[in-house]
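#lab-general

N.A. 3:47 PM
ok so I finally got the sequence cleaned up, no stray characters, all 295 residues accounted for. can someone with queue access submit it? mine expired

B.Y. 3:52 PM
send it over

N.A. 3:53 PM
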Amino acid sequence: MTIDFRTGYLAVIGRPNVGKSTLTNRLVGAKISITSKKAQTTRHRIHGILSTDDAQFIFVDTPGFQMAHKNALNRLMNRSVTSTFADVDVILLVVEAGNWGSGEAEILRMLPADKPVLLVINKIDRLADKAELLPFIQKLSALHGFAEILPISAEKGLGTETLLRAARAYLPEGPAVFDADDITDRNERFLASEILREKLFRNLGEELPYGIAVEIEKFEQEGGLRRIHAAVIVDKSGHKPIVIGKGGERLKRISTDARKEMESLFGGKVWLETWVKVKGGWADDERALKSLGYE
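B.Y. 4:20 PM
back already:
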């Protein structure tokens, strides 16, 4: 460990679909946060850990802050974002290049005055006219005293090394919190549920995923084999056949995709059994949310 070793927590915040989880995965160098094009994919705070020779970055990937839905699940996710501010050393506010709206303005009003905020302008590779980037940066720099403004592409890996160098300067000096080989503080049971939920989000229609959750009812390890029993929770009985598909084809495909990714991540064989259960109103029932592992 060098004398100037730095360790700190960095909140990755922003509205839905700006690329927070993609950025966290890119910085950590491994997939620890699930991704999809649908809002509400990230529902939990997840720590992604990157250890270098002179620093340990502990990224806190948060749910997207949004105001479109007002049920208990979304209120809980919004509280998860704001409560994170007190626990971190640096805030990475992620926005999409060329896109600044009421959602970003609302987040800006909530930012604490005592924490450095690095504005991360993501998806610069998708700008049709690159000349628009500089005026966009100038516009946002007038809105808040950002410690740094960093254009990047999390998907392509553009600018992420510059982001790390800039962020390190704002971390406090101190020893590492996690082992150098750790990439997340979440256990395999949690990661299994998230992988299955990602496959559900990616294989179902636009509305149905928001009424879906995953509950790991049993997780057993026998040598190199993991036996996982997972229930897919839906809000309405009419959703059950949609998830299962004709002759069970859709659920089988989702389960196969999830199993293969679990095996890759866990480094061993996985036996995965999935079924669908109906729990009406679960997303607006705080007791049900707690039983499903929502903080």
